[in-house]
């Protein structure tokens, strides 16, 4: 995760002059029906891998304090979930070793456009509506 290394360098530079820590959010393709998707049974998507390395599943499952919502699921097609502090405590998915030092990062979980029709060997959307839906999802996450 090069973004984490860049954030660490930016944080050091910021803190050296009395500024705050730099936090770069991770935009994660999310299962719209279940927190963490099928992370407990070994699926290998980004969300599932991050759930096995962190507390992401717990943060997805828990609405913000004082929220009128009782549950974050299902995620609306144009919605997402901000998990402001996801603590990563295990290494990459090849072994999931415990990390000596833990770190946290914000994660924005957004359900992807499901099975969009593509053309030109998968390089372009066939339908403008699906392209716009994907753009709207990314804009919302940003």
What structural category characterises the helix and strand content?
A: alpha+beta
Strand content: 15-25%
Domain module tally = 2
Number of strands: 5
Ranges where pLDDT stays below 50 over 5 or more residues in a row are: none
| Spatial sequence of strands, sheet with the most strands | 1-3-2
Question: What distinguishing features does this structure have?
Answer:
two-stranded antiparallel sheet; alpha+beta; Macro_dom-like; Microbial-type PARG catalytic domain-containing protein; 142 residues; 5 strands; 3-stranded mixed sheet; PARG_cat_microbial
Describe the overall structure.
The chain contains 4 helices and 5 strands; from the N terminus they run H-E-H-H-E-E-E-E-H. The protein is α+β, with helices and mostly antiparallel strands and 142 residues long. The chain has 2 domains: 21-111, no CATH class; 114-142. Strands 1-3-2 form a 3-stranded mixed beta sheet, with helices on both faces. Strands 4-5 form a two-stranded antiparallel sheet. Strand 2 (81-90) and strand 3 form a beta hairpin. It starts with a helix and ends with a helix. The mean pLDDT is 86. This is Microbial-type PARG catalytic domain-containing protein. InterPro entries: Macro_dom-like, PARG_cat_microbial. Residues 23-84 form the Microbial-type PARG catalytic domain.
In short:
This protein is an alpha+beta fold and 142 residues long. The protein has helices at 2-16, 46-53, 56-61, 128-141, and strands spanning 26-29, 81-90, 98-110, 118-119, 124-125. It folds into 2 domains: 21-111, no CATH class; 114-142.
């Amino acid at each position: 995760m090069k973004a984490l290394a860049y954030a660490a360098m930016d944080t050091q530079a910021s803190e050296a002059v009395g500024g705050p820590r730099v936090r770069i959010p991770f935009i994660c393709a999310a299962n719209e029906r279940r927190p963490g998707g099928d992370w407990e049974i070994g699926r290998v998507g980004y969300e599932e891998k991050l759930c096995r390395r962190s507390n992401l599943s717990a943060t997805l499952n828990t609405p913000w304090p004082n929220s009128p919502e009782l549950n974050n699921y299902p995620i609306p097609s144009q919605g997402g979930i901000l998990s402001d502090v996801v603590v990563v405590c295990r290494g990459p998915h090849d072994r999931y070793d415990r990390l000596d030092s833990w770190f946290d990062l914000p994660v924005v979980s957004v359900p992807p456009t499901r099975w969009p029709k593509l053309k030109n060997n998968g390089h372009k959307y066939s339908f403008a509506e699906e392209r716009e839906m994907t753009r709207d999802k990314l804009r919302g996450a940003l």
